[in-house]
Amino acid sequence: MSRGLDPEKKEQVIEEFKISDKDTGSIEVQVALLTARIKHLTEHLKNHPKDYHTRRGLMTMVGKRRKMLKYLRKNKPLVYQEIINKLGIRG
Question: Following DSSP, what letter does each residue of 18-70 receive, concatenated?
Answer without folding.
Answer: -SSTT-SSSHHHHHHHHHHHHHHHHHHHHH-TT-HHHHHHHHHHHHHHHHHHH
